[in-house]
Amino acid sequence: MATIAAGFASIIVNLRASNRRTLAGAPVSLVRSLAASAHSLNNNNWTSLQRKRFQSSALVSPDVTPSTPAASPSRYPEYHRLLPCPSENRPPRVEHLVVSVGGPVLEYVCKALDLPPSYVADLIHFGAVYYALVCPEPPPTATPEEIRIFKEATAPSVLMKRSSIKGKTVREAQKTFRITHVNEFVEAGTYLRVHVHPKRSPRCYEIDWKSRIIAVTESYVVLDKPAGTSVCASWLFCSDVRYDLWLPGWLYVGGTTDNLEESCATFATRALGFTEPLKTTHQIDNCTEGCLVLARTKEYCSVFHGKIRDKKVKKLYLALAAAPLPVGVITHYMRRVNMAPRLISEEFIKGWPLCQLEVLECKKVPWRNSVTEAKYCVEDCGWPSKDFAYECKINLLTGRTHQIRAQLAACGAPIVSDSMYMPAAIAELISPAVNPFGKYKRQYPIENDEAVSIQERVAYHGKEPSVAIGLQACQISWDDGEHFYEAGSPWWR
């Protein structure tokens, strides 16, 4: 085991020294690397606004004494605390470790990554530290040395000595879980994934959360979710799709993988003074505002999931589109890949799920002025005509991720400020041939194979919006209208 630990430590040091690119945006084959990812942090200092600290948040357990970090020989800047919240997100930094000597997780991470206890305690509180009993299998791109050390660490003779994995399948042993306490014991051979730079949400500290509460019942709370905030983090198991960092078969849905603290569920719980955290029942994109149902109990969370599954929940949306849309049902098919951007086709493609929405009305409204755009961080995505926008009421018939955003963009009417889908719509407006799944594809045949066509289509999309787009979940109801709730006026009115 000492040799194995030394080998993993060697990998970590060597990869840091090689200054490899960050994991963010890398292909899956690169994301699943066996050891620490190195990161370019030059000229990126930790900036923080002096925001009012949330009074009820205690980020360090009583048994952890904050300390001032000593000067580090590494090129990473010094860390102190995760609050106050920085005004901007730092470049992603994800570290992959294998525990060489068993002990408290806080102590091990501090030593392995040269981080102060107060900062690591904050990371654990944020839900940014994960473990698996066995290090996941390396990708085809792994080096011979990485493969050798993986084989040593997972050799049957080594694994047989670990009682914690007896009776478990390979997939079960490699499944990751969040570390929930600073004193949680991790045994030798345990795999750790540490998100050293959690994705932050400064918007959470700017909201009057009590004013956003629509209804409170014994079973649930209805929140008028602000744009620019995460609902919460959750995982769904899916046996045929594999996109998570080193986590075969599990999909991340909504929220952020590395930050449970700065979410709608957490802040709404505090605003109402509840001791039991509110639970997520469904998802809304970070950049979307509107009606969100949060369960007060696990039981009602299951009940509401059942209502969604049985199509007893009805959702209406207001969309501020950049061009007019016809009233009626719009049908597309979405590529079955749990990654943004979502690609859709006007024609049926085998394996692509059906996407349908109904435009109930569409009315012409003035384009938002610069004052409103600045207040809500509305992005100028280069749409050529900005005299008028079009407010559409939409009945969502199928609930696919990014469905409204992707479908409206495919119709040439992208949502205002949608920096991910509007660039693709503009490109198609200029040259319809760029969309291999559009209505003009027969007139403009694509010679490349499907995989290349998909890559080219994805490249026309932009980044995820920073705060608000013109989309609001304006109404939600279930049980044939017995429970009916409406959001306030959208930001653009």
Automatic annotation (TrEMBL):
Gene3D superfamilies: Pseudouridine synthase
Coiled-coil intervals, chain numbering: none
InterPro entries: PsdUridine_synth_cat_dom_sf, PsdUridine_synth_RsuA/RluA, RluA_PseudoU_synthase
Signal peptide: none
An annotated Gene Ontology molecular function: RNA binding
Residue ranges occupied by any Pseudouridine synthase RsuA/RluA-like domain in the UniProt entry: 220-410
Pfam families listed in its UniProt record: PseudoU_synth_2
GO biological process: one example: enzyme-directed rRNA pseudouridine synthesis
The name this protein goes by in its record: Pseudouridine synthase RsuA/RluA-like domain-containing protein
Lineage: Eukaryota, Viridiplantae, Streptophyta, Embryophyta, Tracheophyta
